[in-house]
Inverse folding.
């Protein structure tokens, strides 16, 4: 049986990293020019934290790939799309319209269908 927490870890880590990156890009967007923008990003602890989360997601994903067939676990990675949209809405105040929510729900349903029986096999 696949440990769901292990496979969801890289998805969650990358989703959180994306929200942090978006927030940092938005805050640094007030810089007067591109050089100042890059400098603001380079000294941002949050940006470095987001990169560390992305690195941790890579390590977690490699652990997943070491243990399970790619065809069973890769569909779960698609859950990053609805998770990023949800976090963007809750943390950044981004709007999610009905059609977008429907599409995101379809992704969740598709992942459920793809993985429903994959987890039963060794």
């Amino acid at each position: 049986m696949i440990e769901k927490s292990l496979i969801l870890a890289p998805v969650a880590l990358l989703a959180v990293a994306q929200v942090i990156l978006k927030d940092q890009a938005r805050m640094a967007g007030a810089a007067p020019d591109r050089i100042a923008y890059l400098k603001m990003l380079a000294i941002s602890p949050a940006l470095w934290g987001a990169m560390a989360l992305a690195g941790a997601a890579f390590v977690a994903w490699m652990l997943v790939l070491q243990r399970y067939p790619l065809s069973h676990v890769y569909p779960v990675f698609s859950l990053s799309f609805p998770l990023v949209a949800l976090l963007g809405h809750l943390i950044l105040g981004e709007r999610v319209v009905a059609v977008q929510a429907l599409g995101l729900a379809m992704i969740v349903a598709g992942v459920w269908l793809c993985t429903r029986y994959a987890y039963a096999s060794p």
In short: The chain has six helices and no strands.
